[in-house]
Amino acid sequence: MSPVITYSRNVFLPLTFVCRNICGYCIFRRPPGEGCVLSPDEVIRVLRRGAEAGCTEALFTFGEHPEEVAGFMPFLEQYGFGSILEYCHAMAEEALRLGLLPHTNAGIMTADEMRYLADVNASMGLMLETTADIPAHRNCPGKEPARRIAMIEDAGRLKIPFTTGILLGIGETRSDRRESLEVIAGLHRKYGHIQEIIIQNFCPKPGTDMSAFPGATLRDMQETVRMAKEILPSDIAIQIPPNLADAAQILPCGVTDLGGISPVTIDYVNPEHPWPAFDELAALTKGYTLKERLCIYPEYIRRGWYHPRLRDCIISLENTIHMRGTSVIPAKPLYEGKAKSVYASENPDELIVVFRNDMTAFNGVKHDQFTDKGRLNATASEFFMKMLEAEGIPTHHIRMSAPDTMIVRRLEMIPLEVIVRNVAAGSMTKKYPVKEGMVLDRPVVTIDYKDDERGDPMINDDLIEVLHILTADELRKVKEMALHVNKVLTRFFDKCGIRLVDFKLEFGKADGTIYLGDEISMDSMRLWDKKTGESFDKDVYRFDKGDVIAAYRNVLKRIIPDSGV
Ligand code: 5GP
Description:
Layout: E1 4-13, H1 40-52, E2 57-61, H2 73-77, H3 84-97, E3 101-105, H4 111-118, E4 123-125, H5 145-157, E5 162-168, H6 174-191, E6 194-201, H7 218-231, E7 237-239, H8 247-250, E8 257-261, H9 278-284, E9 289-292, H10 298-302, H11 311-324, E10 335-336, E11 340-344, E12 350-355, E13 358-361, E14 366-369, H12 373-390, E15 397-402, E16 405-409, E17 412-413, E18 416-423, H13 427-431, E19 439-449, E20 458-459, H14 461-466, H15 472-495, E21 498-505, E22 507-510, E23 513-516, E24 525-529, H16 539-542, H17 548-559
The structure holds guanosine-5'-monophosphate (5GP).
């Protein structure tokens, strides 16, 4: 197998740009002022976008001890936090809630501060930068090499999987680089906690004291990567940033990792250098096997170097990246629905459907996100599609590539929502004089025209024909398939102690055949407990009847007892 190059899919959250250090090369730092602290709403918005884009890591990188900068505190206090680490802890909890693993680089921290953050961080980091005393660090209390080394040592004592690195071209010599690498190697030999070391080329920025500096050359990078390979224990990954350095030229020197790459956020430290898109990354690493990893490396997961609070998230994300394998989901979806995103795949006949954690009701008026919801619906949908295939009903399902990601046949979708009802409920009881719960004499098929802007109006056979949505024959076939699905599902649910009240199907065409598309999940069915009448479906969310994720899990436990949900 070709050599493996790893990377992590992340979102970058610069909680504040205010920093007590004034480094000669930095454009990240800003004085206190409007917008100097990312608001909690903004953080959550970015985390959500990251979760939707399949990211696994929330990278919290921000200015060091901003509290020491006069005028900063009011900007933080407006959000109800007394220190930046307290804020970081709260936002890391949000990240976990949305299914992302936090990695924090807060600059210098004490052992107590790291301990405080460790229950919500899978890993932490601090660039050593250099062991040399350089003019660029003259005004930086936190850049004193001895303090940085002491913190990395503390992290080792605390068994925190750690990232560090060196910055090239900031005024250090070649022998300083060697010394820095030797120090890191020594710390790792003692504590075994350095997962990765970043070899980063400094890129001079206009408007800084060091704008005229040459920065690090390609040769510097190649030489230092080789040096790192020689000096560092082989279990430390050697990382270069592919947005700053010419990765293709440096990889052969011994690079094993490309660090965090974001489909959502920019590199705030080097905003002029965009991340490569995932398909560019594949081209860049031609001849290598590109493999996704989490911010905590597999060896540290195996050793259990994480807080028990992180366990579920780590297991679920490990599963996700394992199933995603080396196939790369493009950055931009072809189509974004209310709860699923559809991406092109390398195979033109297939699409990638990601079941997101979004939950909406009343045509999107109500909208929330729930951890794990995407996986639960994807699991149910796969289960039912397979069941229906076995009963001779063609579906678009091909295989799963992750617990929340289904590879499907590309269909030309028919803009109809085909609803089968066994029991009166929902819109039927609103529109017609019938009581909720009345068992219908026979299953009824009703069809809505799928159009959010028009509120999905009900449509009839004649309209479907004259609007050229389907021919009479095709419509007959669709209804037949819907009733067949109903027969199979009703029989199955009955055995699980669940009553299938109603459900919605969507169909599409490929090569002249009609396939069942979209999803069959707790979002698209009404399911009642046969004995108690309790709802297990989206009505729990629509009408605030309780914990909707617990209800969805309950369905999965009953229908697939060994699904492990
Ligand atoms: P109703 O017409 O009573 O609102 O819905 C009937 C059934 O079809 C319910 O099981 C409901 O969940 C499903 N359904 C109707 N419209 C939609 C829709 O736009 N999206 C989803 N996911 N399900 C729908």
